[in-house]
Predict the structure of Protein farnesyltransferase subunit beta.
Amino acid sequence: MAESGEEALWCTREEHTAERLKDDCTPTETSVEQKKVETAVGSIYATVRDHLSDFPLVLQRELHSHYLRKGLQHLSESYECLDASRPWLCYWIVHSLTLLDEPIPESVASSVCQFLARCQGPNGGFAGGPSQQPHLAPTYAAVNALCTIGTEEAYNVINRETLLQFLYALKQPDGSFNMHVGGEVDVRSAYCAASVASLTNIITPKLFDGTAEWIARCQFWEGGIGGVPGMEAHGGYTFCGLAALVILKRVHLLDMKSLLRWVAFRQMRFEGGFQGRCNKLVDGCYSFWQAGLMPLIHRTLHAEGDPALSLTNWMFDQKALQEYILLCCQCPSGGLLDKPGKSRDFYHTCYCLSGLSIAQHFGSGEILHETIVGVPENTLKPTHPVYNIVPDKVAGAVLHFMQKEIPEVKVE
Ligand SMILES: [Zn+2]
């Protein structure tokens, strides 16, 4: 079943203009910045309102694919600062292309596998580049990229035995994980560990002992989850915490209603996109980190038998988010971005597209429902809200690694 954008766009409706911030004539640094963004976004929405027929809402698939494909072959000098994040670039690009249903040529996929193999450390895990120190963030990115490629060659890159050793080396007595040996602890590491361990079938009874309880302690009084216990709620950490608890099947440790309330209020009333924290500006990447929480929350409440749940929509304005991404986040020369005035990059391209996919596809149990703003060709592939990999690639990896024994690793 599909709904299309026949009716007026949300951003062109009369009542939309009333959603601008009111600062009660007391400007602050925050309200001034917020008004600047509303002015930029508002002028785009006003142009659309006045010339709607000249602005078909089109996802520029060709331009985005071209930008992504070029990035996979050669990165410009401005990416030098991401030298320690090269597996991330691989993941952002291959996942974005997969969402766009663009095939990755076999030879390119194979050279990505060979490159990621060179990033794998001798004692397990993946580093940001060859000969660097293994770290959980690039490990997550590398495993996600390899599972998205989904070939035998890709799966064979992952050394599951040393990966499990690496995870044990990072595990702390309180249940949390270090990001790297001797490194910092935060909710990201718990999610990265749970994600790679569940995809590659190396979860042992001891590996996540105490982890769920530690994550639950990071739920802040606002309802969202902070980086460590007592820290302000933040979209990225909240996604990591909730997705990790879904993997560990311990979501009941969270106050789900207060989490839902927190994330619902992070969708901006005027812009339609999401902010990462209370009082911050809209940013395209939170289209995934925040909106991606909604399927996880919906399914949890559904499993609890909540009768008030919709059978067609997530608990946010899916059309408003799509309008923000399509109108405000597309770079005219391909790629997507944070907000008008910012430049494109592969990170924002990946998470804007992932968020757009979440906003297009509703699914709960057997029930599927699509809400597509603009032309039907805007439809992306769905994404798995726990891993942010397309669902058939998750299934492929799980099936592949399920046939293998869980490695036996000595723990000191
Ligand atoms: Zn961002």
